[in-house]
Amino acid sequence: MSGHHVSVHTLLCVLFALLTAGSNATAAVLQRKAAAQVPPERSMHFSLIADLMRRKVWLAGIGMVIVAAVAQAAALATGPIALVQPIFIIELPVTLVLATLVGRNVKLNQLPWAAIVVTTVGLGAGLAVAAPGGATESAQDSSWVIALIATGGFLAVLIVTAVGTRGELRAALLGLAAACGYALTAALMKNAMADLSAGASQFFTTWHIYAAALAGVGSLFLLQNALQAGSLVASQPMLTVGDALISIAFGVTLFSENFRAGWWLLPELFALIVIVAGCVQMAKSPLASDKPLVAQEAAPTVQ
Fold first, then answer.
1. Which of 130, 126, 110, 108 lies closest to 118 in space, CA to CA?
2. Residue 179 and residue 127: Cα distance in Å, rounded?
3. Please, are residues 93 and 59 in contact by the beta-carbon 8 Å criterion?
4. What pLDDT score was predicted for residue 44?
5. Which of 140, 216, 219, 272 is the most buried (most CB within 10 A)?
6. Exposed, middle or buried, 262 (CB in 10 Å: 0-12/13-18/19+)?
7. pTM of the entire predicted model
């Protein structure tokens, strides 16, 4: 009976994670459509958000972010971070497909389907081989202190480096910074879900939910700047793959999650290489320039 319950929980976790990925992909396309219309001089300023808030398409994107947040919380409540977050790699191909549908004079057969299939199959196979599990429900505060200091230092390096660059490199660096922020948000959210299971009082009187909200807002700000700095595919691979890998690190160090080891590491490494190769091929696609979408955005449209 316990095996049956585990399989049902795993299925629910995967379904909620897929819903999160689809919602985030939709949000990315909508937010990119809005961010591309904002003047470059507003980068890394709060006026960027003020400008975006006046655009209906961006607000629709935020609506999808909220849907994704609820679905992600449900996924994290039913499964380990190391299972939930890597599934978000599927956001990249879904984002490409949606961006193509939004763009004019762009056909679906122009998409890098081979890379999309390779990435998707690599993800599924990698998760099946790794079989992540063994997670504890919450992390010790002492572990959190170390994790927060390390994460803060990593983010500081990325942001300072990004400020000194521009274009696609800036978009990639800020995309990775946003990925780190979202991975941290997921880890905090998982701990908050454990607090909630102990009761509403525990949920609202511990710091995890408030830190998750703060990290989420900060990550959203970084993502908007990444989207505004360069093309969608410049930031999206860093966002999706970075989120998955950093989340795995959080899962292992904070929640004692584990994977199959020994010779299983070889197919796991191969799956990771396949996923990265697929993402690189998608980034090299002619559609990666995002020009069809940008051309549409540049035209005077109803916002």
1. 126
2. 20
3. no
4. 57
5. 219
6. exposed
7. 0.78
Distance of CA 192 to the CA centre of its chain: 19
Alpha carbon 142 to chain centroid, angstroms? 26
Predicted pLDDT at 71: 94
So what's the pLDDT on residue 228? 81
Residue with tokens 């599924």: 124
What is d(CA 222, CA 235) in angstroms, rounded to the nearest whole number?
11
Q: Which residues contact 269 (CB under 8 A, 6 or more apart)?
A: none
CA neighbor of 295 nearest in space, from 234, 231, 238 = 231
Is 64:71 a contact under the CB 8 Å cutoff? no
Query: Which amino acid would we find at residue 296?
Result: Q
Calpha distance 88→241 (Å, rounded): 8
What's the pLDDT score for residue 292?
A: 38
Place of tokens 């459509």: 33
Q: 255 in helix, strand or coil?
A: helix
> What's the DSSP call for residue 198?
T
Phi, psi of 258 (to 5 degrees): -140, 165
**pLDDT at position 297, please?**
39
- Quote the tokens at residue 267: 């197919």
**Domain coordinates in residue numbering, the chain:** 2-298
Half-sphere exposure of 113 (CA within 13 A, CB side): 4
Which residue stretches of the chain have pLDDT < 70?
Answer: 1-6, 35-51, 103-106, 232-233, 286-303
pLDDT score at 302: 32
The pLDDT of residue 294: 40
DSSP state of 147: H
Contacts of 163 (CB under 8 A, 6+ apart): 44
Those residues with Cβ within 8 angstroms of residue 158's Cβ, 6 or more apart along the chain or in another chain? 173, 174, 176, 177, 180
Closest CA to 241 of 114, 126, 153: 126
Tokens found for residue 74: 């449900």
